Each structure stands twice: as C-alpha cells, then as structure tokens.
C-alpha cells in the first residue's frame, strides 16, 4: 500500500502546493523547492521518507523563525486537507520540539490533525516528555472535534503501525488508560475504532489488563460493547479461555468436543508461488443446545529458515443449532505480499473451531 501511496507526491502535487504557499508568502521559491525535493534519490524513497523530505525542505524555504513559518502554514492549511498533507504535522515534529516552542507546537498539532493526522508527529513529544504530553492528550480527549479526540487515542497507541513504538507504554500502559476511559462512549465511530485499536495493542503485552477492562466495560453501552469486542480480537484469535467465555463462545474439550467430526482438504496439492488453492471444510457440531462457534483455518507458513509459523484466517463466526452440519469453500492466494513472502516446501493447513485444531491437510509449494 505504501508503494502505491507514495506516488501521490508527484510534480503536479508539489507545484500545486507550492503555489498555495506562494500566495501566503511571496518570497517562496517554488522551482527551487521542487528541485530540492525531487532530486536523484527521490524515486528510491518510501512514503514516510518522502513525507519527511517535503517537511524538511519546506523548512528550508520558509522563514527561519518557526513562529513565522507556522504562521504561513496556518494561512493555507484550510486548503490542504487529506492524507497527503501529513507533512504539516511532520513539520512540527521536525522543527517544533524546542522547549520555547512547546505551546505553539501543541496549537499547531491540534489544528493540523483536523485536516490530516498528527498521530505520528505527537510520538516524539510523548517520548521526550511523557507526563506533560499525556496531560495534553487527556485534554484533547475532551475536545469538541472528533479528529482531535481521535488523536488523543491514536497518538499514544503502544504499537501504532508505521509509527515509533512507545516502549514505555508497552511496559506500563497505565498512563494511556484515563484517555481510553474518557473516550469509551464517544459519539464518533472514528474515535471508538481508535480506542479499540489502542486496547488491542495493549492486549499484546498485557492481556489480563485488557480482560479486566473488557469485563468492566461490557454491557455498559452498545457503542462501548463494540469497542470491547474489537479490542479483544487478538485475544479471541488466541482463544484465551476467559475471553472466549466472556463473548459466549461454546466450550470444547476432549471429553465433550464441540465438533464430533471434521474434514479439511486442499486442491491442488502442488502449486507454484503466486498460485491459488481451494480449501474445502466440513464439520458436524455436537447435538444439544445452540452453540457459538468461530471457524478458522490456519496455515503453517514455511519461512526462509525452514521453520514454520501459523497464520489464522477467519471463515465464520456465528451461533448455530446443536447437531448442525457445516461446510464451505475458501480460495486462498499464495501470491507474495509486502507483509508476507512465500517459500517452497510443505505447508500444513489446519481447521480450527473456537481455537482448537480439529482437522488438517497439507500442500506443497514449489
């Protein structure tokens, strides 16, 4: 995705942006600005590196005074809306971390996030002065604008994708929790998604803490219920017994199995990297009362060192009558992704119900 997104920063975009700047700052040298950005290394730069290149170069072509430079950006930011303008908050990250600029930088981040997002730019401020910055984030969590409230949660996620990891919150998430408490019944789904994602991050390091929050929040509000469910998705994939019970998934054990029979097959059994396979599953649920089931398949992907690592894929999540016979097909692509490369070898494929492997097959990737 980043490979495709980076192409949005092209000559046409930079020319248009340069003209916006020049309207507010007549001395702005558009041609020099663009040439400095799009040098011989430009094509090699990834998305975040391009964003940083633009913000750094912008600082070289605006007045040396940080306050004056921000004043120019404040004049045009209402015309600069959307994902491409992430370099506005990035400009604050690059040039606004001096102690004397703190208040102005907070004002700028609050303003710029309403038009793009400052979730990445706030993180160096958190790392440098965590207590001071988290007080600011708590204040933002009460802001009337949903984008600012979302920043309060998204900016302090311990494991924000593409962002710097906040190691202190991976070790101790307690400074984050008052913000999530403030936002747990937010009227905006945009904000509630961020709260859920933040809790899901925390669950990867502190599952018991998130389980405690889930038990306390569940049932208090329909919107909060959605947050809890989404926040526990990693724990559900891991089939944590307490979490499975909390969400009503039926128990299964050796003495009283949930599925009394199951079968899984894959065709073809030999295929090249880039090909596709068709998986077919069948299972018979035990007789009796209705049951809540989560059906998944897992692939033990062969890695470059010859070891295998399991990745789960959801097939179905529903309540069914006792005695149900279920079956289905799923096409699986073996094309390489930016997040996963495939390697030759035998790949074991398993069928899971409520986290337990109940059937398996295998295929060979050439």
What does this structure look like?
The protein has about 375 residues and is α+β, with helices and mostly antiparallel strands. The protein is built from 17 helices and 8 strands. The protein has a 5-stranded mixed β-sheet with strand order 2-8-7-4-5, with no helix packed on it. A 3-stranded antiparallel β-sheet has the order 1-3-6, with no helix packed on it. Helix 3 runs antiparallel to helix 4, helix 10 (about 145-155) runs parallel beside helix 13 and helix 13 (about 190-205) packs antiparallel against helix 14. The longest helix has 15 residues, at about 45-60. The two termini are about 25 Å apart.
List the uncertain runs. Answer: none
Instruction: Give the total of beta strands.
Output: 8
Per DSSP, the total helix count is 17
Compressed to H and E, one letter per element, the order equals: HHHHHHHHHHHHHHHHHEEEEEEEE
Q: What form results from the Cα inertia axes?
A: globular
Q: How much is the radius of gyration in Å?
A: 25 Å
Alpha-carbon distance between the two ends: 27 Å
Structural class: alpha+beta
Mean pLDDT: 95
**Main beta sheet, described?**
5 strands, mixed
| Residue share in helix | 40-55%
Strand content: 15-25%
Widest sheet: strand order?
A: 2-8-7-4-5
